[in-house]
Write a structure and sequence with these properties.
Elements lengths: L1 H22 L5 H23 L9 H24 L2 H7 L5 H9 L6 H17 L11 H23 L4 H28 L15 H23 L3 H8 L2 H13 L5 H19 L1
Helix pairs in contact: 1-9, 1-10, 1-11, 2-8, 2-9, 3-7, 3-8, 4-7, 5-7, 5-10, 6-10, 6-12, 7-9, 8-9, 9-10
Length: about 280
């Protein structure tokens, strides 16, 4: 069950990143984040009301609140690092986020077997290669590396916090709702500051209502991925769940290949293959 839900997490996050990347070509990234997360918050609010999730309120919601605060900081750091570039360095380096939940799992006493340890090594190597690492060419801005490391630490911390935010399904709905409300509040504040500084919140012809379904998909896929990861981490080793869930860059690369006909570099193709091998080893272990 852990492998199934963790792989579902990778699929959902990979498609959400792909959709978000396409949308940011037409509107500011902050607008994409705020609108997509608002849709997710509304849907989650309805689920909480329908399932009586407010009755699950308790100390564990502090984990959800912390994840909601850290998530946007990590995301904005990652976006700024991508802007500084080169992306071929920033994207693979961000996969270091998996070290946080894996470290937590090891601290809690998890000890992967030999087959699982091999799977973790192979899968993480595959993810780094699937990101299309740039090993030469444009010099790397020191600030870009620092921001990427901040983003990786933030993403990994959110991974760990999500796993601790609830113990029941209704509690999970409430925890995800709290995270999204905090995300929207933080994103809206950042968007407000951006607009005050003169940056447009929407394209020149106003809000693209035709993009609302795509924005909704991005937000709902993201929140569903959070949910499937929480379930995966609850039903099996966090080390395995975290590594399998971190395969989403492979999904994003393959989606770009399938929908946009983008050619995969040799390193990316090799990375996708290694990620698949690592998945098999982890599932077999």
């Amino acid at each position: 069950m852990t492998a199934l839900f963790a792989l579902a997490t990778s699929l959902l996050w990979g498609l959400a990143d792909f959709g978000g990347g396409l949308l940011t070509r037409r509107m500011p990234a902050l607008t994409v984040v705020v609108v997509s997360q608002t849709v997710a918050a509304v849907v989650l609010g309805a689920l909480v009301a329908a399932t009586g999730g407010m009755g699950e309120a308790g100390p564990r919601l502090w984990f959800a609140l912390a994840a909601g605060v850290i998530g946007p900081i990590a995301l904005l750091s990652f976006y700024e690092a991508l802007a500084l570039g080169p992306m071929g360095v920033v994207s693979p380096l961000a996969t270091l986020s998996v070290a946080v939940p894996v470290g937590v799992g090891l601290t809690l006493g998890e000890r992967p077997g030999l087959l699982q340890a091999a799977g973790i090594t192979v899968a993480v190597t595959g993810v780094v290669l699937a990101g299309g690492p740039q090993l030469r060419g444009t010099p790397v801005h020191r600030r870009a590396i620092l921001l990427t490391l901040v983003a990786a630490l933030g993403f990994g911390t959110v991974f760990a916090l999500i796993a601790e935010a609830s113990t029941t399904l209704t509690g999970l709905f409430l925890a995800l709702f709290v995270m999204r409300v905090v995300n929207v509040a933080g994103g809206a504040a950042a968007l407000h500051v951006s607009v005050r500084r003169g940056a447009p919140a929407c394209p020149g012809d106003g809000f693209p209502w035709g993009s609302l379904p795509a924005l909704a998909f991005v937000g709902l896929a993201d929140v569903a991925a959070n949910g499937t990861y929480a379930i995966a981490a609850r039903h099996g080793p966090v080390t395995v769940a975290a590594v399998l869930a971190s395969l989403y860059p492979v999904v994003t690369a393959l989606a770009a290949r399938g929908f946009l006909s983008e050619r995969l570099r040799a390193a990316q193709a090799a990375g996708a293959g290694l990620a698949l091998v690592g998945t098999v080893l982890l599932a077999a272990g």
